[in-house]
Amino acid sequence: MIGKPFRPPSFVRPNLPSDEPPAKKRRISSEPSVNAPAKHASNDRKPLVTVQNPASAPQLHSEDPNERYYAVLWRKYTNKKHKNWDGDGVLVVKGGYGTLTDSETGKELGRGACTRPLLAGSALSLGGKEVEIDSVIKKEDYTSGRIFLGKAANAPAEQVERAEPSYKPLMAVKGPTVGRQKPTRATSGSDDSSLIDRKPAAPGRVFKTPLLSSTVLPKTNLSVPQPRHDPNQPKALIMKRPASCPKDKQIVDVVVDPVLSKHLRDHQREGVQFLYECVMGMRCEGEGAIMADEMGLGKTLQTITLLWTLMKQNPIYENSPVVKKALIVCPAGLVDNWRREFRKWLGNERIGVFVADPRNKRITNFTKGRAYNVMIIGYEMLRTVQEEMKKGAIDIVIADEGHRLKTANNKAMQAIQSLNTERRVILSGTPLQNDLGEFFTAIDFVNPGLLGQRSAFKRTFEGPIVRSRQPDASDSDLEKGEARWKELVSLTSRFMIRRTAEVLTRYLPPKTEHIVFCKPTAAQAAAYRAILTSPIFAVALGNTDMALQLINLLKKICNSPALLKSKKDAGDTSSEMLQALLPLIPPNVLNSNASSAKLRVLDSLVHRIYTTTREKIVIVSNYTQTLDMIERLLVSLSYTYCRLDGSTPAKNRQPLVEKFNKSSQKNCFAFLLSAKSGGVGLNLIGASRIVLFDIDWNPATDLQAMARIHRDGQKLPCKIYRFMIQGGLDEKIYQRQIMKMGLANAVVDNKASASSFSREELKDLFRLDERDTCQTHVLLGCDCDCKGSLESKIETPLEVKDEEDEDDLPLRGFESASQLDMADLEESIKSRRKAKQPKLTMLMEYRHIDTKHLRVEDAEKVDLLDGNGAREGSVDADAMALAVDDDVFLDLLKEKDSRVGFVLTKSTS
């Protein structure tokens, strides 16, 4: 049987017989061949346009012309007749070798030699995989990690149109003009519109209606959709309109109730609009948001405004409200605070708020009943009632202090996720980008799947960013890490908003912050040296657990050596090292707190505040033993006080705060606060001064505590004092907070990971610097006169900024990926290369004061002499007082026996 001859595939060169001439090749040149007749060379023929092969073209901003990037399809080898591709991938060709990476997981699939040019449709074998080139990608897309994000990278920063089968594009129509007609009679029903003021029927005593005044527009018969509230009122807050509308429906303006909008400040109006666009799916693929405003900016009021708007309105005219049931999850100590805030802004008549507590566990009243629209519950209690919560439909979840949801295995997070609620909002005053693992968890909580799988995120973003922050990072690591960081910033800015406390400058009284370096007493320094010279110290340098125990012991000595002798540690097996070190310290030092330099400064400070002012003070510590010591001091001085720590029942905490805020100095002068128990959500505006007696490894803990008094409602200028031992462990921790070195980032929630410390780091950490100079000021490299002037200079130029030292970089506004210029990225890398030493440049905002210049007899200008009798310079007492900006503290610094050696001070006045 004669059939068609076998035709080899196009990519296989056939073995032609020797007697058959080869097939003619297509001419690719416009020049005539040498052997061709002259008639083929036409003079009027135009030459072909030379087009460069995009696959072999040098990539943008690439130093290596052979460095190429491709989007590919890959699959394992198979003998199946009908083959399918296993997945998408990225092929990187560099230096003659190709590396194949899976786009979904970020896992490397294989590598091998690759020297030939590749075009779309080209096939090759690499690492045991069949690969087909899909398209050429730019270097910027690969370096930034945009190619690994899929749909998340392609979504516009402003708005993503949510295509639905029944939706059609909205025609451009101007907003409706609402006629201001005089209402004749309110419509009946359960709506607020029935609540109108009525005039008295007869003259005489004026009747006061017990009903609420209405802000709802009366219904009219206009064909134009009518919003619930008047959008033409002055300062009306109107939400963004959706881009599409269901068939046979109309869009109406969503206007925030004037009952709330009239109280909103500019940054709060912006925050409400941002949250509304996020939960309505107008900004990204998901319907979640993260509000990371600093403490005191009104996150609670913004959230209440959002919920009230969603519960009463819908942008689709005549549709039911967007939200019917809302769940607020918060720490147990803040449940009552949320309840009071709802009552403050909306009253008890407008909205039903169900507070879940041990006395009120009947959850069906909220899930099945109609009387309650909002439920407030603590994280711990939510885990016990999550099965009952599943029986009802929750439309939105608000997670207050959302930084508690640190891991995906968190039980509270699992309880929230079991509710299957798409709209989720995290509120947290603590920046979430300090740890990229926790950052991913928070993002995946509010917008699940937006960043892909956790393993892929770790390979694609976390790994390159962490490597680029290492001191020995190569130029390639730096470029990739900075590009991935910028891409992550651009993506997360679509659903995350953060504003700093600077926006409150015009609303709140001025604030002065003092970093107080206390010189250790002789007994305190001797106890410090006794531990460092003991044989146990040398052993601790090579043992993780012992190094951590030693850190805790030195922190106690910085507060007071007497804290080492504690009855609580008597039966603790972990205190064997402590029992071995106690004999090195004299008994009189262990039995008295007189050797504590911090306690001496605090004693003098509270005495001057109590006797010379009518102000009150908050004293914060991370340890209950330290609070016990301060409590004994206040008792000995006969000063009244309140105390809130871990042993205080949750139901008693807010009444305690209210009692302190309302009482006079005589009735309650001081408030003792545990930083871990009451560091968030408390408004201690009854005090205008706060002392942070010890420092925490996590800078967010200190920032939260400092914000307790400088909040809305504060009437007096605020003074903040941060105590630390000069040259001791306190100062070393503070330096690492500022410099953002790996040592500070290795410690979370006051639990040090000593295994990440090198031996040299531990030696430096434990070293006691007993020089008269301030070690922090020396490391800063400032050549100022330490007399409080702002004309300080530093060897490293201030204009060279390291982006990793900027706290709010990941939340610096809304910036699309197209705005990220590679030139700026390269300049940033060069700037980082110039920064040879850790930066402390933020301390240049402070005034630097050596207290020896204040302890002089002449109040005017006096000449100071150094140790050799040479003239050092003159001191202007008035200028120094202006720099300190605190008369009470200035008198303390002028004391001859004052233990304060150096002060860094900054004021917003």
UniProtKB/TrEMBL annotation:
Has keyword Lipid metabolism? no
- Which positions fall inside the Helicase ATP-binding domain? 280-449
Q: Tell me the ranges covered by the Helicase C-terminal domain, including all copies.
A: 605-763
Q: Which Gene3D superfamilies match?
A: P-loop containing nucleotide triphosphate hydrolases (3.40.50.300), SWI2/SNF2 ATPases, N-terminal domain (1.20.120.850), Tandem AAA-ATPase domain (3.40.50.10810)
Q: Where is this region: Disordered?
A: 1-64, 173-200
Q: Which GO terms describe its molecular function?
A: helicase activity
Q: What SUPFAM superfamilies does the record tag this protein with?
A: P-loop containing nucleoside triphosphate hydrolases (SSF52540)
Matching entries from InterPro entries are given as:
Helicase_ATP-bd (IPR014001), Helicase_C-like (IPR001650), P-loop_NTPase (IPR027417), SNF2-like_sf (IPR038718), SNF2/RAD54-like_C (IPR049730), SNF2_N (IPR000330), SNF2_RAD54_helicase_repair (IPR050496)
Q: In what ranges is there compositional bias, type Polar residues?
A: 184-193
Keywords, ordered alphabetically: ATP-binding, Helicase, Hydrolase, Nucleotide-binding
The protein's name is Helicase
Q: Identify the taxonomic lineage of the organism of origin.
A: Eukaryota, Fungi, Dikarya, Ascomycota, Pezizomycotina
